[in-house]
Design a protein that fits this description.
- There is one protein chain.
- This protein has two domains: 2-117 and 293-322, Quinone Oxidoreductase, Chain A, domain 1 (Alpha-Beta Complex); 121-259, Medium-chain alcohol dehydrogenases, catalytic domain (Quinone Oxidoreductase, Chain A, domain 1, Alpha-Beta Complex), CATH 3.90.180.10.
- 29% of the residues lie in helices and 29% in strands.
- It is built from eleven helices and 16 strands.
- The chain has helices spanning 41-44, 111-115, 118-130, 148-160, 171-179, 194-200, 215-223, 247-253, 267-280, 282-286, 303-311; strands at residues 2-9, 12-19, 29-38, 57-58, 62-70, 82-86, 94-98, 102-104, 139-143, 163-168, 184-187, 206-211, 225-233, 256-259, 294-299, 318-322.
- Strands 3, 5, 6, 7, 8, 15 and 16 form a seven-stranded mixed sheet that branches. The protein has a six-stranded parallel sheet with strand order 11-10-9-12-13-14, with helices on both faces.
- Helix 5 (171-179) links the parallel strand 10 (163-168) and strand 11 (184-187).
- Helix 3 (118-130) crosses helix 4 (148-160).
- The longest helix has 14 residues, at 267-280.
- 48% of the residues are buried.
């Protein structure tokens, strides 16, 4: 079967096409014929130590497709099921997925929409609900709101009745996000948004900030927090891995700062997040309260071009490749 592999080169990554055997599912696993797969920055970045791979490895971490075989002990799935999965090596004609990281696709979702869900929406669930403890009526700030996780965070916040502030360098993207339910849009890059965000909340500050940008946005994300505020560190699109922490603010406001990375998370930890996603977010996808935002769809053979498009920061939402 055809597949793509990825390796780190300098501060970036390169993709290479390989023909490899179709894998065999083991106990508790599914063999999935891939119909679509989405691109995720964590998988594509080479400058983050936890994501570096100086030797080529199978690329792709989520997909949608059809179950073609099941391993021993599998229950709850059958051959022919439409599923969306998290795994490794999903940029391929077939992939093996753990059942605990697989979900039957709601009927209303296309292959492309379903492929845009697993990583982005589970990560947003972790940031907002599992660890961020966001509640109805609270304020959420999203630095990097136009990304896949940013859009998912906005939609989940709207779904539970929270209020949202999105930060993006593009006025056009913010206008489109407001059409999706964003309450306040702030145009800015790096760390020049704290004053406007605090003013938007009537001077009170936000309850939860999600930093999808990196070190340049950390100071402003901390500044906008109110007492008992939470700050989730999720992404580093700016390539800045370090930032100063105002310890007096952390101490005085009793702030909670936490990070999210699936790179070293155990299968049990991933499964826990999956169960929470299925309970709290999947119903919103199933009934149409949340519709995944797919920016562009590329043919599978054009995966390198899709990667270049993601790295250009032109996207709004998710970029997907479609297999025939």
């Amino acid at each position: 079967m055809k597949s793509f592999w990825i390796k780190s080169v300098g501060d970036g990554t390169v993709l290479e096409s390989r023909d490899v055997p179709v894998p065999t599912p083991g106990p508790g696993q599914l063999l999935v014929r891939v119909h679509a797969a989405s691109l995720n920055r964590g998988d594509l970045l080479g400058r983050i130590k936890r994501h570096r791979s100086d030797t080529a490895r199978p690329a792709g971490v989520d997909a949608s497709g059809e179950v073609t075989a099941i391993g021993d002990g599998v229950t709850g799935f059958k051959v022919g099921d439409r599923v969306m999965v998290r795994g490794k090596g999903t940029f391929a004609e077939y992939t093996v997925a753990e059942t605990v990281l697989s979900t039957v696709i709601p009927d209303r979702l296309s292959w492309e929409q379903a492929a845009a869900v697993p990583i982005a929406y589970v990560t947003a669930y972790e940031a907002l609900l599992q660890f961020g403890r966001l509640q109805a009526g609270e304020w959420l700030l999203i630095a990097g709101a136009s990304s896949g996780v940013g859009v998912a965070s906005l939609q989940i916040a709207k779904g539970i009745g929270a209020k949202s502030i999105g930060v993006s360098g593009s006025a056009a993207k913010l206008a489109k996000l407001k059409a999706l339910g964003l309450d306040v849009g702030i145009q800015g890059r790096g760390g020049d948004f704290s004053t406007a965000a605090i003013e938007a909340t009537g001077g009170k500050g936000v309850d939860l900030a999600v930093n999808l940008v990196g070190g340049t946005a950390f100071k402003a994300c901390q500044e906008v927090l109110r007492e008992h505020g939470r700050l989730a560190i999720v992404g580093y699109v700016d390539g800045v891995m370090k930032a100063e922490i105002d310890l007096e603010e952390v101490h005085g406001k009793r702030l909670h700062i936490f990070g999210l990375s699936n790179a070293a998370l155990t299968l049990a930890g991933r499964a826990e997040a999956q169960r929470g996603f299925v309970k709290d977010v999947l119903p919103m996808l199933a009934d149409g309260r949340i519709v995944p935002l797919v920016d562009r769809v590329f043919p599978f053979d054009e995966l390198p071009a899709a990667k270049a498009y993601v790295e250009s920061d032109a996207l709004l939402g998710k970029v997907v490749v479609r297999l025939n």
